[in-house]
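Bench notes, afternoon.
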Amino acid sequence: MKRLAWVGTILLTIGAAAAFAWPREVRLVGQVVLAQVSVPQPPEARRRAATLEARRLIAAAEGQVGVTLRYDPAYASLAFPGGDIPPERGVCTDVLIRALRDAFGIDLQLAVNRDMKTDFRAYPSTWGLTRTDANIDHRRVPNLETLLGRLGAQVTLTSDPADFLPGDIVTSRLPGNLPHIMIVGDRLAADGTLMVVHNIGAGARVEDALFDYPLKAHFRLTPEVMARLAELGR
């Protein structure tokens, strides 16, 4: 015990000295450490009424909070169908992929692959591919935008919070024109805007972030869309 106390005293002394010498660096390290160990839970908030299907999707998305703790865009070889990387890691698309699998047994990996093989040229050529790649195609936001649009899910995009419903899917563009995708939840922020479930860099979280960045597209998973999606993804 004395040895542990002695070691602890040394570490505290070193930490204090480092904080004095390099305050900004120590603060940044502390922020990184806190981000890794602090798991924000979905906030208590008023909720908007939602359909049963929307509640299932949202619950499956919110269930990833505290599980997916990191943002990891690295290319990975996946099983097919039903492939996934370890649940503690992922990107924004993985929130939707996992939520649809958990809530409805719909596999976006399979759905995107099947639809791309039907009409490969309908999908973006951004990555210079000449054939499908089941490891990554479904994890790219522009491909999901294309799939949802082809299934008839796209609705008119506005900046009016009242036009968004729980369970909707929205995409935006971050600085540098980086695509991002979010699930609209049923929790209401203080101003009445619906919160979203997404992973924008610190793991899956529920946040008041619907209008943080310019929106690109707005999709609604109507029963007709879900039926078409199920045909492709089961």
